[in-house]
Design goal:
The complex is a heterodimer of chains A (793) and B (567).
Chain A lengths: L1 H16 L5 H14 L1 H5 L8 H21 L4 H18 L1 H4 L3 H11 L5 H18 L3 H23 E2 L8 E2 L6 H11 L4 H4 L3 H12 L8 H13 L9 H23 L3 E2 L7 H6 L11 E2 L10 E2 L1 H20 L6 E3 L1 H13 L10 E2 L5 H29 L4 H18 L3 H18 L5 H6 L1 H11 L2 H14 L12 H5 L2 H15 L2 H17 L7 H14 L2 H9 L15 H7 L4 H7 L18 H25 L1 H5 L3 H14 L1 H17 L3 H5 L1 H19 L10 H9 L9 H7 L8 H10 L1 H4 L1 H6 L6 H10 L1
Antiparallel strand pairs in A: 1-2, 3-7, 4-5
Helix pairs in contact in A: 1-2, 1-4, 2-5, 4-5, 5-8, 7-8, 7-9, 8-9, 8-10, 10-13, 12-13, 13-16, 14-16, 14-17, 16-18, 17-18, 17-19, 18-19, 18-20, 19-20, 20-26, 22-26, 22-27, 23-25, 26-28, 27-42, 28-29, 31-38, 31-39, 33-34, 34-36, 34-37
Chain B lengths: L3 E7 L14 E9 L4 E6 L3 E8 L3 E6 L4 E6 L4 E7 L4 E7 L6 E6 L4 E5 L4 E4 L8 E6 L5 E6 L4 E5 H5 L18 E3 L6 E6 L9 E5 L3 E6 L4 E7 L4 E6 L5 E6 L4 E5 L13 H4 L3 E2 L16 E6 L5 E6 L3 E6 L4 E8 L4 E6 L8 H4 L2 E2 L7 E2 L1 H4 L14 E5 L9 H8 L5 H15 L18 H87 L4 H25 L1
Parallel strand pairs in B: 11-30, 19-23
Antiparallel strand pairs in B: 1-2, 1-28, 2-3, 4-5, 5-6, 6-7, 8-9, 9-10, 10-11, 12-13, 13-14, 14-15, 16-17, 17-18, 18-19, 20-21, 21-22, 24-25, 25-26, 26-27, 29-31
Helix pairs in contact in B: 7-8
The chains are: A mainly alpha (793), B alpha+beta (567).
Chain lengths: 793, 567
């Protein structure tokens, strides 16, 4: 404590002895010293007894009085320093300082009305807000400090940013006030805590916010508009008791009505096919629109925003209102509110049903509107749709599990827009983001048709991650390799023949061009892991899965590679092993903790010992390790020897061949293949089992019969895992250390590898027989397209 | 502080509780750790097993022998509503674990009722079960419902399909709407309990027990059997380890048993090892964990603590026992609720740091179910969301605050950030020296000075500028002048040098001439003397000769002078 008193004394000394003009330079260090003395400043006064403790009290008192007088100082510097130090003091002292903070509050309020520099006033606003914020948890302090001074604070801050004409309840915004942002931030911080104090000012604040939100040009920065939208939504909290929810709902409904009204004008160049599900709204929108004049709205709309003129401003207004509606959905509310989910979906259905027409036409043109306006509208449509999708994403994020009933509806709206406007990068990025949150919710129970409707989106996301040129170049090279000498339209570029490096160069250029819109690449690359994780993998078409895997490998995205390894494509029945990109993952991220856990799992098992749930002594630990270590080695070595060729080579043909020959070779191997049959069936939840449950049951029974047959010749005393024991036998020559007991005890450490490694282990033995074959087919990156060909055959 | 609680419910019985605090109590919130004490109670409820569900804000209790569900508010601590249904409810579960948005009810008649508690929407499925639905669970992805019935089948339902307004395109056209997607019929007798694994991946498992003395671990995504377990008795309650390593069953005699998936030594995952899937595992009867007293009655319900190391069981005699999972035996009696304890549900740990932030919204009150006519009957807008579909909730999320970073930094940190202080210092410097204020380079330092003063400053500066320019021009001209002078002087100097050289040459010349003249004079004098001497010798008067010579000389000298100058 002594050093704290010392540093406090040093602060006091500097504050009093140095001339005021020199104080700003050391203000930062003084503030740091004060906040380091927090322990001292916040300790209760009453407990201080004795001589040294009274010294504490004296020093604290000195500091407080000095700062109070500095707040009233004649010079700018003195007041500036006072504001900086008061903030630090209040933060450090907590209740002990807060209870005496009344003179500070008065001084700070005085600064707001003086001609001080911007930063002094800004910091004064922040400091006052902080004091009000900190006192909130102490009702007595709220009564003594906040309640008396908060109305004055609101008035003087409103005066900073606006002018109140006498005899009017509303306010006019001051142009280019530097305080706008900080004042709005302060309000949104305080309004939820002191709604009753803000209540008399709601009309004034509302008028200021209307002016900001409804401003025609980009006169306010985005952050100012954002914060004012948030504050606009938060104003409902000032409503009298129990009517807050009603206010919120009214404001939300008015925003929706306002959007509809704006859309009436903006979309007048086309004939809309949409019809509202809300009969009330259908009536409201029945009014005819004047087609003769320039597009625009004259009077104020439902929200009280001013009229606009010209399509550009109309679209801007539409976007602002859409963002406002999203803000409604994500801003904290005072009470229970009812989110009009049905109406919001009705709105997005309207806006998203008008799409950019394809060649075959799509929207019906309104004959009374000029072609130029229609074309202008069609170029603006992607922006509107991106805003719609942002709104929907907010809705899904807010509703979480309750979004299940509407997820399918949203998905269909999204697919509709994507089909028409996928040429637009902004649309693509928004679609990826929205699809991501949707399949997080409903992915696992998606049907096959549903998944196939996403195919187009998945393909485009792959090409958005990888530049398009790689696609074409690899395809070209493959087709050349296959000897299909077709004259390609792309091959006209003679330079590419003369200089093979050109492809590389173009690839780099392509990569850099995708960097120009980083949001797109980011959205696409977060979508892929979500797809692999959530969708039923058996419904993804094999060529599509191959494309995803290739993209994932090329980009070396760890998440996506993990998702692919953990959700392998189920092996087709009779085709042998499943495909896994695990080697690529391990090569790229061998040192990662999660990769380690995947390859060499150490999941603790419930054991029979009494020591469970306790930290055992180190000797026990070592013992355990001794048991485990040789085992895990013996497990991994056989895997790694034979593992690379079959599992990564998705060359199914070779595997099928090897299987037919394998049955004739050794008895142990023939047993293996029998036991493999049911394994394949577990991994392949065949499509037929989904269409009807009965055939699946039959298959299962059949499988059971087979496996019992295979199990019977095995040693009955140890019916553990036929595959393992056999496999270890086959590698016995290689690993002389291996003994069966160790293998058995090894499995006390369970292998929760999932299907991936399991299937790899199964296939690991086969290449031994087919060595000369598999040598020819070493895994390469371009192997996936090969499998595509086969699947098509 | 970290604390762990559980919620237990009882069914009514003839017994009267010993303590007054337990009178009429049907559901109680009981603390397990740090001290086993009763926290709060909810009255007037009698529930059968599998008929209690808990969300963050509410407790739902289906009443035994009645067609009603009691809803209790956990915030207010009272009964909020009694919701009537058309049929008796035999099982109940909550979907959407965090918020509990959807309540799934299994009815006496073999159908499921889905009730969205925030909207009041209600969806009824087909009566796919032939007997009452006795167990309902929802999987961790909130996509599937598993319902077990006394008819020995378990149906798997897609929650999304059931709830969606727009029906997804499916290949299941031949089947009626709102029917299960899969049926699991490996049990031979009434299903007593179902439990779902804790994974959201596609290899998640389900474990179910039935009255045929079996427990089956199976894959509910495919309907494939993973493992059969032959139990020594009829299991009536079930709980699954948090890491899915084992499950625990409770029997009618009050004893418990754990079944460890990893007991067998296998390199492969034991549940996914095909060679084991057909072989039922015999669970020996002597490994059962025996209850402390023989009159404990059936273990109606089981639940596991957060760390999976304490197992709680609710018994017919009204006691809640705690069991040590590691030692595999009874540990202590946690509570005595007099009436048969039918449900015990462990609550998540309170006091973990990130937990409070995770709840994005809360529903304080439920909306009673209303039959959704627009769902099925409305043909005109089939597949669209009705306009009056509203979601009642209280949004709490402040996670994505729109307030800019600079404000939050300044607002919540102990000191103002340096960037703000530096800006202030720059402004102070500008204010301190007002004459040079405009020269301050920082553009974002917005001065709070009126326009008039600015104008005057600008004017002053312009004036100053003008005078400075004038001065510069003056000095420039002055310099020009001096340089001109210097060049002139330089040229003068050169001229003078030339003059001096000329003069020197002249002087030299004159000097030479003088020497020559003197030489000539001497010569003449010598000649005169010679002439005088010669005249004297001849005897003539030397002087007269001299005079004659002089007269000669007068004409001669002029002539010789010319000659010499010519030479």
């Amino acid at each position: 404590m002594a050093h704290l008193v010392m540093s406090l004394r040093a602060v006091n000394h500097r504050l009093t002895s140095l001339p005021v003009q020199q104080l700003p330079a050391i203000a930062a260090s003084l503030a740091t010293s004060i906040s380091e003395c927090g322990e001292l400043l916040s300790s209760p006064q009453s407990q201080k007894t004795g001589r040294t403790d009274s010294d504490h009290a004296v020093q604290v008192h000195k500091l407080v009085t000095r700062l109070s007088s500095l707040l009233q100082d004649r010079t700018f510097e003195g007041r500036w320093v006072a504001v900086v130090l008061v903030k630090a003091l209040v933060e450090a002292g907590q209740w002990e300082i807060l209870r005496g903070s009344e003179p500070f509050v008065r001084g700070l309020m005085g600064i707001l009305n003086k001609p001080d520099p911007t930063s002094t006033k800004t910091m004064a606003v922040i400091t006052l807000t902080r004091i009000f914020h900190l006192t909130y948890q102490y009702p007595t302090l709220v009564r003594e400090i906040t309640t008396p001074s908060l109305p004055g604070f609101i008035t003087s801050t409103l005066n900073l940013v606006s002018v109140k004409p006498p005899s009017e309840p509303t306010r006019r915004l001051k142009p280019n006030s530097p305080f706008l942002e900080v004042v709005l931030c302060a309000y949104s911080e305080l309004i939820a805590r002191h709604p009753t104090i803000f209540r008399p000012f709601t009309a004034q604040i509302h008028s200021v916010l209307q002016a900001i939100v409804g401003s025609k040009s980009a006169s306010h920065s985005q952050s100012v508009v954002d914060i004012s939208e948030q504050l606009f939504v938060a104003l409902h909290q000032c409503a009298p008791k129990n009517s807050g929810g009603e206010e919120w709902k009214n404001a939300c409904r008015m925003t929706i009505t306002s959007i509809h009204a704006t859309a009436n004008h903006v979309l007048r160049a086309v004939v809309e096919q949409w019809e509202s599900v809300d009969p009330l709204l259908r009536q409201q929108l029945g009014h005819s629109i004047d087609y003769s004049s320039e597009v625009g709205s004259h009077g104020a709309d439902a929200l009280g925003l001013t009229g606009w003129r010209g399509l550009d401003l109309g679209v801007d207004r539409l976007l602002v209102l859409m963002r406002m509606l999203s803000t409604f959905l994500k801003t904290a509310t005072a009470t229970t509110v009812s989110i009009p989910v049905g109406t919001i979906l009705d709105l997005t259905a309207r806006l998203m049903s008008v799409t950019v027409p394809s060649d075959a036409g799509g929207v019906q043109a309104n004959p009374s509107i000029s072609r130029t306006e229609r074309e202008h509208l069609l170029t603006e449509l992607p922006r509107i749709h991106a805003a719609c999708m942002r709104l929907l994403r907010t809705l899904v994020n807010t509703l979480e599990t309750a979004a299940l009933p509407i997820a399918q509806t949203i998905l269909e709206q999204t697919l509709w827009v994507f089909r028409a406007e996928k040429f637009n990068k902004r649309i693509r990025a928004s679609v990826y983001d929205l699809i991501h949150v949707l399949i997080d919710r409903i992915g696992p129970s998606m049907t096959k048709k549903n998944v196939s409707s996403l195919t187009d989106i998945i393909r485009t996301s792959c090409t958005d991650i990888l530049p398009q040129d790689i696609e074409t170049s690899t395809k070209n090279s493959i087709s050349e390799a296959k000897g299909r000498s077709k004259t390609n339209a792309n091959a006209i570029n003679a330079d590419s023949f003369l200089n093979p490096n050109l492809k590389q160069g173009r690839q780099l250029i392509g990569a850099s061009s995708s960097n120009k819109f980083p949001r797109l690449a980011r959205a696409a690359s977060t979508l892929l892991p979500a797809i692999l994780t959530n969708l039923p993998t058996e419904y993804l078409a094999p060529p599509l899965r191959a494309e995803i895997d290739r993209t994932v490998i090329m980009t070396s995205s760890k998440d996506a590679m993990f998702a692919s390894v953990l959700n392998p494509f189920p092996a087709a029945r009779g085709r042998g092993a499943s495909i896994s990109i695990a080697p690529f993952l391990v090569r790229s991220y061998a040192s990662g903790m999660d990769v380690e856990a995947l390859i060499r799992p150490r999941m603790p098992v419930l054991t029979n010992t009494n020591a469970i749930g306790q930290y055992v002594a180190p000797e026990d630990d070592e013992e355990e390790e001794e048991i485990i270590d040789p085992v895990s080695a013996s497990e991994t070595i056989p895997e790694s020897t034979g593992f690379l060729q079959p599992s990564t080579t998705p060359n199914l043909q070779a595997l099928v061949d090897s299987k037919s020959t394998a049955t004739t070779t050794t008895t142990s191997l023939s047993k293996r293949t029998y036991t493999e049959e049911p394994a394949l069936q577990t991994q392949q939840p065949s499509i037929s089992s989904n269409t009807s449950t009965k055939p699946a049951g039959v298959q299962i029974k059949k499988a059971r019969v087979e496996s019992t047959v295979s199990a019977s010749p095995l040693d009955q005393s140890e019916p553990v895992s036929s595959t393992t024991t056999i496999q270890t036998k086959s590698f016995k020559e290689d690993i002389s250390m291996l003994d069966v007991d160790a293998a058995a005890s090894s499995s006390s450490e369970p292998v929760a590898v999932g299907q991936t490694l399991v299937s790899q282990v199964q296939t690991a033995t086969q290449p031994l027989v087919e060595d000369e074959d598999s040598d020819d087919e070493m895994p390469t990156l371009n192997i996936e397209p090969d499998t595509d060909e086969e699947d098509e055959e | 502080m970290l604390s762990e609680c559980f919620i237990a419910s009882t069914s009514a019985s003839a017994k009267t509780p010993a303590s007054a605090s337990l009178r009429d109590v049907g559901i109680c919130l009981h603390e397990l750790q740090p001290s086993a004490t009763l926290r709060s109670t909810f009255k007037k409820s009698s529930t059968a097993p599998n008929c209690l569900a808990v969300s963050a804000s509410h407790i739902f209790a289906a009443q035994s022998e009645k067609a009603t569900v009691h809803v209790y508010s956990r915030d207010k601590g009272n009964q909020e509503a009694t919701v009537p249904f058309h049929e008796r409810i035999r099982s109940l579960a909550v979907a959407g674990s965090k918020n509990g948005d959807i309540v799934v009810l299994g009815t006496e008649g073999g159908r499921l009722i889905l009730w969205e508690v925030c909207t009041g929407r209600q969806v009824v499925t087909t009566a796919s079960h032939l007997r009452p639905v006795t167990a309902v669970v929802v999987d961790p992805t909130t996509n599937f419902i598993l319902s077990g019935s006394a008819d020995a089948t378990i149906h798997v339902w897609s929650l999304v399909d059931l709830l969606s307004f727009t029906k997804p395109p499916s290949g299941r056209d031949r089947q009626p709407a709102n029917s299960p997607i899969r049926t699991f019929s490996n049990h031979r007798a009434a299903v007593t309990a179902i439990s779902v694994g804790h994974s959201t991946g596609r290899y998640n498992i389900a474990v179910s027990t039935a009255q045929d003395n079996t427990a089956i671990a199976w894959d509910y995504r495919t309907g494939h059997v993973l493992r059969n377990f032959l139990l020594p008795a009829n299991a009536i309650s079930l709980s699954l380890d948090p890491v899915d390593r084992a499950f625990y069953v409770g029997y009618e005699d009050g004893s418990l048993q754990s079944v460890d998936f990893y007991k067998d030594h296998s390199v492969q995952h034991p549940l996914h090892d095909p060679s084991l899937q057909s072989t039922p595992a015999q669970i020996p009867a002597e490994e059962r964990w025996l209850p402390p007293s023989a009159d404990s009655g059936a273990a109606h319900t089981l639940t596991l603590s957060y760390d999976g190391m304490v197992l709680l069981s609710g018994h017919e005699n009204g006691k809640v026992y705690s069991w040590n999972v590691g030692r595999r035996k009874y540990a202590s009696t946690v509570a005595d609720l007099t009436h048969p304890v039918t449900n015990v549900i462990m609550q998540p740990l309170a006091g973990l740091y990130q937990q409070a932030a995770s709840l994005k919204r809360v529903s304080h009150t439920i909306v009673k179910p209303r039959f959704d006519h627009s769902l099925s009957e409305n043909s005109q807008f089939a597949g669209t969301v009705p306009a009056d579909y509203e979601f009642n909730t209280h949004i709490l999320s402040e996670a994505t605050s729109a307030r800019p970073d600079w404000f939050m930094n300044a607002f919540s940190n102990a000191c103002f950030p340096t960037s703000l202080l530096e800006q202030g210092l720059a402004e102070l410097a500008a204010v301190g020296q007002p004459t040079f204020a405009a020269t301050a380079p920082s553009s974002n330092v917005a001065m709070d000075i009126d326009d008039s003063t600015k104008d005057s400053q600008i004017a002053e500066l312009e004036r100053e500028n003008a005078t400075l320019k004038q001065k510069v021009s003056v000095s420039q001209t002055a310099r020009q002048v001096t340089t001109e002078e210097v060049t002139k002087l330089r040229s003068d100097l050169a001229n003078l040098h030339d003059y001096i050289n000329e003069l020197q040459q002249k002087q030299e010349q004159s000097h030479r001439e003088k020497i020559r003249r003197e030489a000539r004079k001497e010569e003449r004098a010598a000649r005169r003397r010679e002439a005088w001497f010669a005249a004297e010798k001849k005897g003539k008067n030397g002087d007269a000769a001299l005079r004659r010579l002089d007269s000669e000389e007068g004409s001669e000298t002029s002539g010789t002078d010319d000659q010499s100058s010519d030479e």
